[in-house]
């Protein structure tokens, strides 16, 4: 013997669907869920913390890359790399590609502003 489920009339099913749709619209179209458990909250917080750490690491890596430095370079190396690139990309040295040179200088200055300041670097 196999179970075939409850014997519901099509009229009852139709009425139940209408009631569910009305309840859904009454909630503003949002599906209500049970509040998260402590374990779920902890997992969500851990996931957010990992994402933030990954973004910060990515940003720092990009800043070091702009100055052609390895991650964790010291203050002297940062200053030296900055000066070298500023001289290399000075807009007066690139009259044909002045816009590109100015954009490079902006990104170099932004990277140095962050990495050159020990407080912002951390």
Structure description:
The protein is mainly α and 122 residues long. The protein has helices spanning 10-26, 38-66, 75-88, 98-115, 118-121. The radius of gyration is 29 Å and the shape is elongated. The termini are far apart.
Put simply, the count of helices is 5
User: In angstroms, what is the radius of gyration?
Assistant: 29 Å
Strand count, sense and closure of the main sheet? none
Q: Would you list the SSEs in sequence order as H and E?
A: HHHHH
What coarse outline follows from CA principal-axis ratios? elongated
| Helix content class | 55-70%
Strand content is under 5%
Integer average pLDDT: 84
Q: Give the termini distance in whole angstroms.
A: 69 Å
Low-pLDDT runs: none
Overall SS class: mainly alpha
Q: Layout of SSEs?
A:
Blueprint: H1 10-26, H2 38-66, H3 75-88, H4 98-115, H5 118-121
Helix pairs in contact: 2-4, 3-4
Primary descriptors:
mainly alpha, 5 helices, elongated, 122 residues
């Amino acid at each position: 013997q196999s179970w075939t489920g409850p014997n519901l009339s099509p009229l009852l099913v139709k009425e139940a669907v209408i009631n569910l749709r009305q309840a859904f619209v009454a909630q503003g179209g949002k599906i209500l869920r049970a509040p998260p458990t402590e374990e779920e909250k902890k997992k969500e917080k851990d996931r957010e913390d990992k994402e933030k750490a990954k973004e910060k690491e990515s940003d720092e890596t990009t800043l070091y890359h702009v100055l052609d430095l390895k991650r964790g370079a010291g203050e002297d190396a940062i200053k030296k790399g900055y000066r070298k690139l500023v001289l290399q990309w000075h807009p007066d040295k690139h009259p044909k590609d002045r816009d590109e040179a100015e954009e490079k200088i902006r990104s170099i200055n932004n990277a140095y502003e962050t990495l050159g300041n020990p407080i912002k670097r951390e």
